[in-house]
Specification:
The chain is of the alpha/beta class and 232 residues long. It has nine helices and six strands.
Length: 232
Amino acid sequence: MSSMSLFYDFVCLIYPRLCDACNASLLQHEEILCTFCQQLLPKTNYHLDEDNPLARNFWGRVPIAHVAALYHFKKGGKVQHLIHQFKYKGITEIGTYLGESYGKDLLQSDFFKDVDVVIPVPLHKRKKRKRGFNQSEIFAKGLSNVMQIPCDTKTLVRTTASKTQTKKSRFKRWENVKEIFDITDVVTLKGKHILLVDDVITTGATIEACVNQLLAIPGVKISVAALACTAG
């Protein structure tokens, strides 16, 4: 065993590196997720299926070209723990890692190969200042890095700080967000294929509100990608 490996093992005894999904110890070559979680976390593969349950959730509501999410979200599951570590513990490396990983998947799909720009669902500036980051933006920038397309954080803005959505019904969620987004520029993205990015999609109310604003851009095509979803 090399001296570097011995030093690594010694450091890990004091500062253990743990999988952010299951808390198992990470091996030297592992990052963010252990090999077990990389293989067995519940991926949706919706990026390969145009007629998937998440896409159907938006039928008759707003015109979205393609809808996909990396993971299935289940309360109390490992994906929820992973997102909690990212969103509330401030481990932003999780968002970048998963965004870059999912970007590779999206590039293998004919549905997402022609995306021109990535736009994250924005946080209100007051909430972003309090948290220190926008989780959707971190994930979106990971996608942007791998897909080699720009990440636009200026065009879609949140004008009002909405109340938490956690315990609201579908209608109440829609009421809570329907008029809190705005567009700052309807010219620059004219005719572009936009990939709108969120962290977790539940009822889809936030995505619907964002899409309704983005449709003000002439000739725009909108697809959606999320870190996780409850549909399906």
